[in-house]
Design brief:
Number of strands: 11
Mean pLDDT: 94
Low-confidence stretches: none
Shape: globular
Radius of gyration: 13 Å
Number of helices: 0
Amino acid sequence: QVQLEESGGGSAQPGGSLRLSCVASQIYYNSYCMAWFRQAPGKEREGVARIDADGTTTYADSVQGRFTISKDNAKFTLYLLMNGLKPEDTAMYFCAADRWSCPLGPPGEPRWWGQGTQVTVSS
């Protein structure tokens, strides 16, 4: 049973930074794709960033140049470094994983999901 657990959420001021972490069990980091999603109240879930098994990264236009996704295979940990935070980045952030495909938008979605960590950006 794959388990994903996020941490690192919290509050930040506009322009500030946060780093999210996601620790996974029962997966092989070097052969799975992983991704970060977010969902704000009243809005649809949005794909934020993806890192494929070979290390290729993909970002949503809304975070390109501000967020960086990375992973440490030895620590079984996925990261999302968020710089230049904006109030519109406020959302619950989820990490997700799949053996084959981690699309950031429909159709399809990763198979396994964490419970989420809240990020709030306000002055």
